[in-house]
């Protein structure tokens, strides 16, 4: 029943994908990253209801003034910064634990190939971390979430199909492994 279990996560992703466009962007993102003051106030009212949010807006403006001279680091600069090592270590440990979730077992491969699949899972996680951290400031979370969920839904449909056909065609098992890698990358970039 692995296919049912994998389909459940696809269903949850689809539900989130359907409702995500109805939510506004984060007010701090709109103000600090995009410089959209009117959009920030509109998002505050959508998220918190009608009211006066001038205090919160002023706090964000102060934060914007403080961070105005701060340089946004790219991935390599961040990896050279010792102050972020605890956060990076925590993030890597959480992502590496994804190997224990059982996705590799769904492909129905020989035991001798499973270590290589685990290595591929780790590589996929690393690719998604680097890629996501490079583009999140450019595109924002909403686009990455929507795109990630769409990709995950498509990949899960293809994975289900490849698992169903893996008994008839031996090469479909390897397609399943590639789809698992792509699912992990899509998950890492989006959700």
Poorly predicted segments: none
Number of helices: 9
How much is the average pLDDT? 78
Taking the alpha carbons of the first and last residues, their distance comes to 24 Å
Strand tally is 0
Kindly provide the radius of gyration, computed on alpha-carbon positions and rounded to a whole number of angstroms.
20 Å
Number of domains: 2
Kindly estimate the percentage of residues that lie in beta strands according to DSSP.
under 5%
| Main β-sheet description | none
Helix fraction? over 70%
What shape does the CA trace take? flat
Along the chain, the helix and strand elements come as: HHHHHHHHH
What does this structure look like?
- It is a single chain.
- By secondary structure, the protein is mostly helical.
- It has two domains: 1-72, no CATH class; 77-189, no CATH class.
- It is built from nine helices and no strands.
- The protein has helices at 2-19, 27-33, 37-48, 54-67, 75-79, 85-96, 114-139, 141-165, 172-189.
- Helix 7 runs antiparallel to helix 8 (141-165) and helix 8 (141-165) runs antiparallel to helix 9 (172-189).
List the helices and strands and how they pair.
Blueprint: H1 2-19, H2 27-33, H3 37-48, H4 54-67, H5 75-79, H6 85-96, H7 114-139, H8 141-165, H9 172-189
Helix pairs in contact: 1-8, 2-3, 7-8, 7-9, 8-9
Summarize the structure.
By secondary structure, the chain is mostly helical. The chain is 72% helix and 0% strand. The protein is flat and about 65 Å long.
